[in-house]
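look at this stuff:

>
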Amino acid sequence: MPGEIDLYGVFLPALLVYAVLALVLKELASRLLVRIGAYRFVWHRPLFDLALFVLLLGGITALAARI
């Protein structure tokens, strides 16, 4: 896993890039869950969204470590 990612000469921490990617994926997943009505089974939506973000971030980090 690289410590930094070069983006046109600007070095960004890898975790920042992974977190932005996880945030975008969480928003897409959240919109899908709203559309299918899955949030009516969720007790605390902000806590669920945070857990979804953490799971996505962990998965992206694990995938990046394998590559």
